[in-house]
Amino acid sequence: MNQSSNKEEKIIKGIPASPGITSGKVFLLDSEEPTIIKRQIADEELPLEIARFEEALIQTRKEILNIQKKISEEMSSEHADIFDAHLLVLEDRMLLEEVISRLRKEKFTVEYILLDVIKKYIKVFSRMDDEYLKERISDIDDVGKRILRNLLGQQRRDLSNLKEKVIVVAYDLSPSDTASMHKKNVTGFVTDVGGRTSHTAIMAKSLEIPAVVGLETVTRWVKSGDYIIVNGNQGTVIINPTEETLKKLEVEKVLFEEFNRRLSGLRNLPAETLDGYRVKIAANIELPEEIPSVLAHGAFGIGLYRTEYFYMNRKDLPTEEEQLEAYRRVAIQMAPYSVTIRTLDLGGDKFISQLEIPYEINPFMGWRAIRFCLAKPEIFKTQLRAILRASVEGKLRMMYPLISGIEELREANRLLEEAKNELRQRNVPFDETLEVGAMIEVPSAALISDLLAKEVGFFSIGTNDLIQYSLAVDRVNEKIAYLYEPAHPAILRMAKSIIDAAHKEGIWVGMCGEMAGDPIFIPILLGFGLDEFSTSPMNVPETKQVIRAMTITQAKEIAQTASTFSTGHEIVEYLRNKLKEIVPEIVS
Amino acid sequence: MIAKKKFVVKNKQGLHARPAALFVQVANRFDSNIIVRKGTLTANGKSIMGILMLEVGPGTDIWIEAEGEDAQDAIEVLEKIVLDEYEPIQ
């Protein structure tokens, strides 16, 4: 059999869920439903079918309880909660009675009847106009498949005794899969479904292996043993790569590893210029699971901790306790370094399931972020109290997103005072000196940064939004993507004036947008006087490397010269050449 | 013995999510048959699927009917779940 020569290379694009590049053999965990044949049974087979069904239910119940136990020991009870829902489905009277009564009436094999009943439920639930109920589909599906596997006598392919290094490909990875996984031999995850904050993404990040999710049909294109490349940086999967692609990959990998090796030497070194000027390098995170990666890459703090994931993909609101637990964990693990928590920033391109945010034609300019929080003070204060309570455990700061004027800032601060008073009444301690900052990401805020600077402890420039609002470019619209220019003179002037205004009032300025992690902009931002660079953990070493290879005098000169050009293209060209002079070996 | 009572669901989430699960778990502790009625639709009160498929949103009128020895107790306990401002805090 000629296996590899007649296979064509295929590239599938999905959602990057965990960074890194890996290649290797596929371990296909599951794909579509097991094939069930519709077979009529004889009357005398009936008791046997019912007994088989009962046996499978007992077996399934045992399985679920085992996994639940294992997970609550290894991970948190929150992860184990999913299995309560699974048990409820498994023990559901309506479902069981329907299977039994149809079995008696129609006399097909129990596999066929069960599958049909499950399908019917899934169909009904998927038509419901309710996100929470739609999500129950995965519980029903998971339990249904488990019972079927037990009926068919097949075990779900077991991830606990993988003998060689593999990339796990599945329709979806459940907590039960990842809990039982032999983690050393898994080098990547690839799934049909899922998003950036799905269970698969969280696990991949905490295991520090690349993952691409939301590939829709990847399980249809691969078999166990196929060779694939997983690029968790770009969110692509290459199936059956050609010799040529593999060679390219090898070169890339070697360069990347070599580069990383050199950079890892930087881990414990400060971000200090050759002439002794120090800035702070921090990282952006979304989940507590990313902290090991933050520390491994040598960031001295978290400049942006996004909190939206608490509110997404669920029906109820996150409680104060639930948020407290996460913030506390981050504070403790990062101590003595600081962690800047951004308060809820929903709307725009980030949606929420349970909060009824009306459809908007122009969501980026609509009811979102601080505007939403000020309109829903109870939701906002719940988060504020959680942040305040966690502040005794480490060095926390917080900042408000999308501030566009002074009144918003004052109103947010007023609610913060209320939250503090509520805690004082409850005799709950918090850090009285907790620093509060404003994100500068709306042009109006940039223009009045001198006024805002008098009323906050720090600024954090959110470049992604600042660029799109200033240049009137929707960053989601591909047709005008060419207009999205971080190096536009307007943006650079704005960055400089924000930093100047802040320093005049004696407060510090950070930057947490993508611009802060792009090496070509490091010299100019350093020259402008930016105090904290916060970027994705992966970009931290490179940022440090650039800073450590230059002097502050040089940075100031670059900033000055760059400011004399009239187009973004000229500026990029100039900055790129300068970067090459400073760090000739940089890979970009 | 048969007991039945009409309620307006006060719970912000309706009879979904945790409240529904709680309802079913509690209903299963009773020997009585328990039925939840919304308009002309009915569901087995001991079935999570049944309850969820009724799609009981906040503000909906429902009837809970129990039939059996412990019918009265069942209604009383289930009433609390339906009427409580279910806040999973602490």
Written overview of the protein:
The complex is a heterodimer of chains A (588) and B (90). By secondary structure, chain A is α/β, with parallel strands linked by helices. Chain A has 23 helices and 17 strands. Chain A has an eight-stranded mixed sheet with strand order 1-8-7-3-4-5-6-2. Chain A has an eight-stranded parallel β-barrel with strand order 10-11-12-13-14-15-16-17, surrounded by four helices. In chain A, β7 and β8 form a beta hairpin. In chain A, α13 packs across α15. In chain A, 43% of the residues are buried. With 90 residues, chain B is of the alpha+beta class. Helix content of chain B is 34%, strand content 27%. Chain B contains three helices and four strands; from the N terminus they run βαββαβα. In chain B, strands 1-4-2-3 form a four-stranded antiparallel sheet, with helices on one face. In chain B, β2 and β3 form a beta hairpin. In chain B, α1 runs antiparallel to α3. The longest helix of chain B has 13 residues. Chain B is globular and about 30 Å long. The C terminus of chain B is likely disordered.
